[in-house]
Specification:
The complex is a heterodimer of chains A (56) and B (173). In chain A, 86% of the residues lie in helices and 0% in strands. Chain A is mainly alpha-helical and 56 residues long. The chains are: A mainly alpha (56), B alpha+beta (173).
């Protein structure tokens, strides 16, 4: 259950990050760089928790 | 399968929420020096700037996207020997695309959604002075200029222009 929730969180953060990166590629003025970095950091954290959860 | 679809939808919703949150900031914004079309700043004397050419340009440094925003300019000026003074914000990559120029007054409001925004989030502001005789005789004084960004509900054509400028990756030529 916990792993399934973490997988979903990791997936939607990664998709949001991909959308923000794509939009910034189209035009950097739409989203600030801070949002891109925050999403990337959250996505990495969710991924790390997912791996830890899987190992345990 | 259902979980993946939910995750994709959640990702899209989160991105949309982040976009909505970026519409909220309002307030005063900095502007660059007032320059001629060659990028040379006009001379400042005491507390005012002396404009001696028909066109005078300044960058307004926004902290946000132009989507759903309007620019409120507070301009204190002495028209000098000009017969008319207008102000506009650049609309597309062509350097002189200021179709939506409005007569300069103490307070000027310009919708921003359909205006061109540089990758560094600045917008181009231009003053247009009409000279009585020849362009060499233009002379007016800018005493103060302040730029405030406020929320403004855009109409459909403005939204369409905004989407087009993003999708076509419009940049200043």
């Amino acid at each position: 259950m916990k792993q399934s929730l973490l997988t979903s969180v990791f997936l939607f953060l990664t998709i949001a990050l991909a959308l923000v990166v794509f939009t910034r590629w189209l035009h950097p003025a739409v989203f600030p760089l801070g949002i891109q970095y925050s999403l990337a950091a959250l996505s990495i954290l969710a991924g790390m928790f997912l791996v830890l959860c899987h190992e345990n | 399968m259902v979980r993946s679809l939910t995750a994709i939808l959640s990702g899209v919703v989160v991105t949309a929420l982040l976009l909505l949150a970026s519409l909220l900031p309002q307030g005063l914004r900095d502007h660059g020096p007032v320059e001629n079309i060659h990028g040379i700043p006009y001379p400042a004397e005491d507390d005012h700037i002396i404009i001696t050419e028909p066109l005078a340009h300044a960058d307004i440094y926004l902290n946000e996207s132009v989507l759903a925003k309007k620019l409120v300019l507070e301009i204190d000026f002495d028209p000098g020997n000009t017969t008319g003074l207008a102000v506009g914000v650049r609309e597309d990559p062509f350097w002189l695309s200021y179709d939506g120029r409005v007569p300069a007054a103490r307070t000027v409001v310009i919708p921003l959604t359909d205006k061109l925004q540089e990758p560094n989030r600045s917008i181009d502001l231009m003053f247009f002075a009409e000279a009585p005789r020849s362009p060499g005789e233009v002379g007016w004084e800018l005493h103060s200029l302040s730029a405030r960004v406020e929320y403004a509900l855009p109409d459909w054509p403005q939204l369409r222009n905004y989407a087009r400028s993003i999708l076509y990756r419009e940049r200043a030529l």
